[in-house]
Amino acid sequence: MAWHSTGRHPRGLTIGIDIGGTKVAAGVVTPAGRVLARRRTETPDRSKSPTVVEDTIVGLVTALRAEYPVTAVGVAAAGFVDEHRASVLFAPHLAWRREPLRDALKARLGLPVVVENDANASAWAEVCVGAGRGSANVVVVNLGTGIGGAIVLDGRLHRGRYGIAGEFGHMTIVPGGHRCECGNRGCWEQYASGNAVTRDARELAAADSPVARTLLQAVGGDPALITGPLVSGLAAGGDRACVELLEDAGTWLGVGLANLAAAFDPELFIIGGGVSECGDLLLGPARTAFRRNLTGRGYRPEARIAAARLGNEAGMIGAADLARDALPRGRTGRRQPRLPTPRPR
Ligand SMILES: [Zn+2]
User: Fold this and answer.
1) Which domain range does residue 64 map to?
2) Which of 81, 151, 162, 254 is deepest in the core (most CB within 10 A)?
């Protein structure tokens, strides 16, 4: 990221925009990753035309530009973004299908624009100013309704040939296991995501086991009312059944991370998303399972596993920095590689 480059720091502010399924967040961000101003609005209804979301973005940028001089705009979108960072190929929560968002926004705003996948953008922010600061080889895993992620290798985002790298959630972890909405069985996200924890908690409660008594009491006896935050809250309070549910998810998380270590050999895994707020209740078992399943264990350095730090502003901050890629050469102050060599360990 720009602020890691020694010497010439880029001047100027950029705007980062994070488009999620329910909210659009926009912010003016400094080259050092500080957010100077924020605006938020609801995501327009998915049934409306793609230009409605475009209008929303233009409205947010116009309002922020009136207060701050900005040089570029970065947009993080929950969806597949093409390898040119120009078009959203598919966004599950929006009406975009092969939407040429970058050029449309550029024409309307008169500013350089970069479009990036939201997981990539938030990973970039974590590596530059969050939990991964100083690390050049990082894999980020976000645990939410599913599992998403991103890969940073040698200080650069690894986007894949078609821009879709990092969709870890659908790696097969348990052949023949739980059915996944992707059409396969046994995907990682069926075992280690927030939704997996909720599903298991409901199953446990529905079995009417005495171990789930506190859990059932908390929802007035209706297992369908159990949510992920309820499970993590009870686990934090020491409820044994909920602690075990997080241990199960953490164990599967560690197994998947060991697979990713075999593929990418990072120095650090950053775990983000709602479930990661459980901290060591989840990450402790993940570390144990990771060590137990690591290829060549005992004979290789082990990657660290840490919780993400930037919370839900990561996408916005990362998009704002990636916007600097759209600036004409010489104005970004960037040198390659952008990140420093990893610190000695
Ligand atoms: Zn799947």
Assistant:
1) 3-124+312-332
2) 81
Matching residue, tokens 């049934």: 47
How many angstroms separate the alpha carbon of residue 145 from the centre of ligand 1? 12
pLDDT tens column, 26-36: 999 999 999 99
From ligand 1's centre to the CA of 183, what distance in Å?
6
Do 304 and 323 reside in the same domain of the chain?
no
Is 199 contained in some domain?
A: yes
- Ligand 1 centre to CA of 171 (Å) is 7
Contact yes or no for 136/337 (Cβ under 8 A):
yes
pLDDT in tens, 177-227: 999 988 999 999 999 999 999 999 999 999 988 999 999 999 999 999 999
Report the CATH number at residue 80.
3.30.420.40
For residue 205, tell me if it sits in a domain: yes
d(CA 183, CA 192): 18
Longest CA–CA separation in the chain, Å: 66
Whether the pTM exceeds 0.90: the reply is: no
Task: Please indicate, yes or no, whether residues 118 and 193 belong to a single structural domain of this protein.
Answer: no
Same-domain pairing of 22 and 111 = yes
Distance 161 CA to ligand 1 centre (A): 21
What separation in Å is there between the alpha carbon of 296 and the centre of ligand 1? 28
Regarding whether 62 and 87 lie in a shared domain, the answer is: yes
CA 185 / ligand 1 centre spacing (Å):
7
pLDDT at 122 over 60: yes
Q: How far is CA 227 from the centre of its chain?
A: 21
Calculate how far, in angstroms, residue 107's C-alpha sits from the geometric centre of ligand 1: 38
164: number of Cβ within 10 Å: 15
